[in-house]
Amino acid sequence: MKNHLLFLSVVLFSWTTCMAQVDKNATRETKALYQNLKSLSQKHILFGHQHATEYGHGWSGDAERSDVKSVTGSHPAVIGVDFSGLSDRPEEEIAKMKEVLRKNVVDTYHRGGVTTAAWHFSNPASGGGFYWKDSVSVAAMALIRPGGSHHEKYRQILRTIADFAGSVKGRDNKLVPIIFRPYHEFDGDWFWWGKGHTSREDFIDVWRFTVSYLRDSLHVHNFIYAFSPDCKFNTEAEYLERFPGNEWVDMVGMDDYADFGRDGKYNLEAGLKKLKIVSDYAEKAGKLAAFTETGLETIPNPTWWTETLLKTLRAEKMKLAYVLVWRNDTRSATHFYAPFPGQGSAADFMKFYNDPYTLFEKDLKNIYK
């Protein structure tokens, strides 16, 4: 049983002395989440899992279920969802997806958890989906920026997202805050928005337009905006190469599978160095920091949670709001990143769960106040 339930009845950082969010009109609940995440990151880290409550290893759509809860008794503190289904589909499908997603986000809010949304959306100017496919995909960032041939189509996609953002209301009639993480892993070439397919200037223009259009024109005030490249940097200057500016980003993060055991390769010193760059920049710039994606597929290392992940996270006194591991596929026997009952790392995951440093959903109280 965990012994560090947190009663966040008082925000430790006053509104006036703390960092400013990019949306000065953010809802009270969004501001509270932002400040509470900053406060918690001084001594703790929230654990997150992508698609945790939507489906898991061998199941889908079960009420009140997650593989993490089946092992520990608690859902993850952070639930990852995806806005991929809100474009490039028939209207009826989008409407159904919105409702499924809305229920997921609102249910997490009612339980006291946190939602973060990735955005694997299909190339709006060509086929190929969200991945870059040679001879199929086109370099679309230059086309969706203001003045581009597909800019109006992009505006329509953002209107759909804004409509969804306005639909996620709890029983208290408050809008649910969401950590929105668009264009992640942009320093790789595997997505159509990747570095090899767009200029620095076009990437930054699209980012700034995205934030300003959602915030200022469509009046979305329940987003926290997260910037997260992959791990292809070794210095702060390299990390910030496509950074749109402090006035356009609330949270800085990174995705890193490569240094944490992927293909049997470990370089924890490099992984720690990069996380430290992210954490140090956040502290300097008055931003939140997070380890926005990581994990070890199939978790063949039975002590990965404590000996690899936790040891790295607890080094150097970094201040990271959360760490999120990737999804557990429903049908694949090998595509999973969190344990389920009987999986080889489950016992070690319980040690990770019971460590006072890590927070799960049951540990959070009043995070929106």
UniProtKB/TrEMBL annotation:
In the UniProt record, does the keyword Cell membrane occur?
Answer: no
Residues the entry annotates as binding substrate: 120, 190, 257
Gene Ontology terms describing biological process:
substituted mannan metabolic process
Active site residues of this protein: 185 (proton donor), 293 (nucleophile)
Which residues are listed under the site Plays an important role in maintaining the position of the catalytic nucleophile?
Answer: 184
Q: Which UniProt keywords apply?
A: Carbohydrate metabolism, Glycosidase, Hydrolase, Secreted, Signal
Q: What region holds the GH26 domain?
A: 28-362
Q: What is its EC number?
A: 3.2.1.78
- Signal sequence annotation: 1-20
SUPFAM superfamilies in alphabetical order: (Trans)glycosidases
- Gene Ontology molecular function, alphabetical: mannan endo-1,4-beta-mannosidase activity
Primary location class:
secreted
Subcellular location field: Secreted
- Reaction catalysed by this enzyme: Random hydrolysis of (1->4)-beta-D-mannosidic linkages in mannans, galactomannans and glucomannans
Name any GO cellular component annotation. Answer: extracellular region
Q: Which family does it belong to?
A: Belongs to the glycosyl hydrolase 26 family.
Q: What is this protein called?
A: Mannan endo-1,4-beta-mannosidase
